[in-house]
Amino acid sequence: MQAMRSMTMTSQEQKEVEPFDPQEVAEDLRARAGIYRLLSNAFGGEPGAGFLTGLRQPEALAGLSEMGISLDRDFTDPPLEQLEEVLAGEYTSLFASPGGCVPVESARLTGKLQQEPYYEVQADYRRLGFEVRQGRFATFDDHLGVELALVAELLEQAGAAAAAADERELRRLNKEVKRFWTLHLGRWVRGFGRLVERAAEHSFYREMARLLRGFAEDELTRRGIRVEDADGTVPETPKEETEGLTCGGVSKSYDRSNEVPVSLVAG
């Protein structure tokens, strides 16, 4: 059987025939899917008690530390209820206030909601056999949390294909992930992450934004993707010079009824 190539290899490595360990590749893909899930939960809505409790476990903090992510005592020390309240306030300030960093592709790239990217990702979800299952309220299909959840689903499927040594399916899913990064995530999440990292007061959002930006750079490099980040961001300046920083996008207050965690399920 011809050697298969891991989705996590660089484009140069993909040109070479190398030994393939199905279980090793599957574990790597599932681990990366877990990072997408983490980021989807972090930016998909106000973090809930279950998510925060899990993230404050020693093994979770150690895993983040291995990736260079360090959550301060403002995250680890307060009572859970107090932490939830503080992060809900920061979430509103960062993502739902006038001039805030609206985590929606259409808003980031056009300044308006439900523009071309919105309809494009809807078509992608349908084509790939997924649908957005709403929570208490509706959400936008080009919301960052939903887009990250899609890639997590594709990587989990790729992990299953790798474990089954299904070369054709693995390649298909690899192409789909690369396509989605090229047309969507790669066009805005790096600039978005940079702005949130600078604007955040709490270490949770600062570090999650740093993880998002770094992980995006890593994914683009691993997949051999070159795409300009078209997010309309402010120039690089020292943090002390970014007082009153606005993130562009929609200028009016973002309707919070359109922003809660949702799930992406196979249709």
Molecular structure report:
This protein has one domain: TorD-like (Orthogonal Bundle). It contains 11 helices and 2 strands; from the N terminus they run H-H-H-H-H-H-H-E-H-H-H-H-E. It has 267 residues and is mainly α. It starts with 21 loop residues before the first helix and ends with a strand. It has a two-stranded antiparallel sheet with strand order 1-2.
Low-pLDDT sequence parts: 1-17, 233-245, 256-261
Mean pLDDT: 85
Number of helices: 11
What class do helices, strands and sheet pairing give?
Answer: mainly alpha
* Beginning-to-end CA distance, first to last residue: 33 Å
CATH class: Mainly Alpha
| Oligomeric grouping of the chains | single chain
Overview features:
disordered N terminus; 267 residues; 2 strands; TorD-like; 11 helices; globular; mainly alpha; 3% strand
SSE map:
Elements: H1 22-43, H2 49-55, H3 58-66, H4 73-76, H5 80-95, H6 105-110, H7 116-128, E1 130-133, H8 144-163, H9 167-183, H10 189-199, H11 203-222, E2 263-266
Antiparallel strand pairs: 1-2
Quick description:
This protein has helices at 22-43, 49-55, 58-66, 73-76, 80-95, 105-110, 116-128, 144-163, 167-183, 189-199, 203-222; strands at 130-133, 263-266. It is mainly α and 267 residues long.
